[in-house]
Amino acid sequence: MQVISPHAILLALTAIYMQFATAETVLGVYIYHRHGDRTPKILGSTALTALGYDEIFARGSYYHGRYINSSSSSQIHGISPSLVRLSQLNVSAPTDNVIQNSAAGWLQGLYPPAGQTANQTLSNGTSVQPPLNGFQLIPVSTLSSGSDSESSSWLQGVTGCQNAAISSNNYFSSPPYQSLLSSTKSLYQSLSPMINATFSLSDMSFKNAYTIWDLLNVASIHNSTQEYPALQGLNTSLMNQLFELANIHEYNLAYNSSDPVRGIAGAVLAGQVLQGLNNTITSRGSGNTLTVQFGSYATALSYFGLSDLTAASSNFTGIPDYASSMVWELVTNSSISDGFPSPSDIYVRFYFNNGTSAASADLTNYPLFNQSSLLLSWSDFVSSSQKFAVTSQDQWCQQCGNAGSSCAAISSSSSAATPSTSSDSSSGGISKAVAGVIGAMVTLGVVLGLEALVMLIGGIRLTIKRANVPSTPVTEKTVAGERP
């Protein structure tokens, strides 16, 4: 009997794996993206900076190379590689200066000017090139709710969810919070020379952990110690300490395992991801195959907790950096030469990149729902997400306990409503065993636009980024402390 060496077995297994990897096709993608560098939230009128514009454009260019470029192995199946086809793309952002402008800047990288490819010939034979070397105009869907979220000091301030606000407020009376409030008092008050232009002495405490760190983080990026001598005490060790405290503060306001409603923002995001990916499947790839949602960091923190990403890495309890992104890919190993694959042959893979804090621009794959596999079947992804996802406005109203006119109207009519469902897997939709999970989805943008609240983390070590600091201060108001 012939003995097969371990080396030969390894080579055979490697060949099988490579065959699978090279045969894999990306069918659709959902991206949740944080904005770029901005001015401090505490000062209001928050604006995207030149650095933030550059960061977000670079990330858009990265995703062009990954999902749009025809030479990429991860190109989305059937997507237009040079001229944008608007029917394939769905981009949304709340009515917020920072987030809207980030979306616009990102899209410039995703579909750069097309040059002569964008030319059109008129009936009289004249060739017309669009302005700016074929600059491509891509609309961003706007949401009126969640407006000015980057000027809001905390997550629940823009969710509109009463029970979530109550739950988050409960953190301020919890023993862990009270302990940190007391033990860090001297630390925060020692910051007075740097922040006394913005915070009163009574506000220099762990209660304002995020807004204090945010102000100093912006100052460390944009303001020189020559111009503002008070910032000389802002060393790396101090900033790391303040950042860790801000992480604790924000994560506990965004998620609590014993009170799931606190994570309502992440629950709505989960429902939106289900809806977006399901639309790709039910349309058999003929509709939106790339859905992109822009928002802030807090929704990401809620999703991290709800989806058990903290089991994959404790760093998922930290605030995602600027230009971070979460990605859900729909993939298949089935041949698509004979048509769109059935849902049973479709899988979901989750990625994260921690923006400007990541060591690499590339995405990192993490397991969702505390599972061992990095690749989930579509049915497993749906069933696991559905355990916490908010998939209708009626469900949102019930969880939030809101009694406003919109919730009252939905409640009175819900008993007569019949949710639509996908008929069968042969039509390219979800199989009947899974159809009920997604079929009841309504337009979740109506759910008070929680798109305004999201953000991410990953790479994954969270660090303070100080490279590429502009030599010119953003504005006199961004400083903490008096000018000399």
Automatic annotation (TrEMBL):
One of its GO terms (molecular function) is phosphatase activity. SUPFAM superfamilies: Phosphoglycerate mutase-like. Pfam families: His_Phos_2. Gene3D superfamilies: Phosphoglycerate mutase-like. The keyword Signal applies. The chain crosses the membrane at residues 433-457. The keyword Nucleus does not apply. Keywords: Membrane, Signal, Transmembrane, Transmembrane helix. Residues 1-23 form the signal peptide. Belongs to the histidine acid phosphatase family. This is Acid phosphatase. It comes from Talaromyces pinophilus (Penicillium pinophilum).
